[in-house]
Amino acid sequence: MRFVIVTGMSGAGKSTALKSLEDMGFFCVDNLPVALLERFVELSIDNNFENDRIAIGVDIRSGDGLGELNNYLNRLRVNKFNYEILYLDASNKSLVKRYKETRREHPLAKGHSLEDGINEERNRIDFLKKSADYTIDTSRLLTRELKSEITKIFSNDIDYTNMIVTIMSFGFKFGIPQDADFVYDVRFMPNPYYEEALRRKTGNDEEVQQYVLNSESSVTFVDKLLDLMSFTINEFVDHEDRHQLVIAIGCTGGRHRSVTIANELYQRMSGLPYSVRVFHRDIANDTYVKGEA
After folding, report:
1. What is the pLDDT of residues 50-101, one digit of tens each?
2. Tens of pLDDT along 205-222?
3. Cα–Cα distance between 248 and 230 in angstroms, integer?
């Protein structure tokens, strides 16, 4: 039997995770009272439950029962019952934005500010985060991307490292991304803007990619950066409580060189043992009209 406890911060995507697991054939129960969890497990085992894949949603709605949950999970471990914990997390900024958009009230915000409620929730469920087998930070994930991560873990059985790497291209003229963990400048590379046939294209076009990567310095840069980032990300995975890293690649306008290099890094990093996504922040800005690239 595969028994998964889906938990985490309110607004971080637990409902989406449970729906994804249900689509994969899991029998899913959301917000099961903690007092019934032990009996539910016993029934699942003793009655040879017809579905050998079960997912239970547990979160702050359990109230005071969370304290007993910690004790019960410890008893399950002692009794050699195998279970997995999937923890959905997100930054306070992202959670506040989601609550304001949906106009929902946080379970712990009654009489307090929204952010106070979020911080209190973090404290109360911290023991679940520390025990989690899989942690997904959904701060920058689209719904389809979260579903993809769930599929990797519970359908494709990929060795999941709890790290999502975002490679972002951007234009310096529009500002450095505030959420970038690493920023690299590729303005030294050949600029397709000065080629009339390439000016209106982007780094998603093969002709632009060939032009930028036809430089020895560009290829050397990608090779060295790939080596550096592989080492750095592995260190974060092994030694830091980090589940997201943003690598920002910048050129002047964010349409040609940075997009090309971001795409190249994405393709070459996708074979490494963590999730990688690519995002082109400024590619839609038609700066070529103003004589900039």
Report:
1. 667 899 998 888 777 777 888 888 888 777 778 899 999 999 999 988 888 8
2. 999 999 999 999 999 999
3. 15
User: pTM here?
Assistant: 0.68
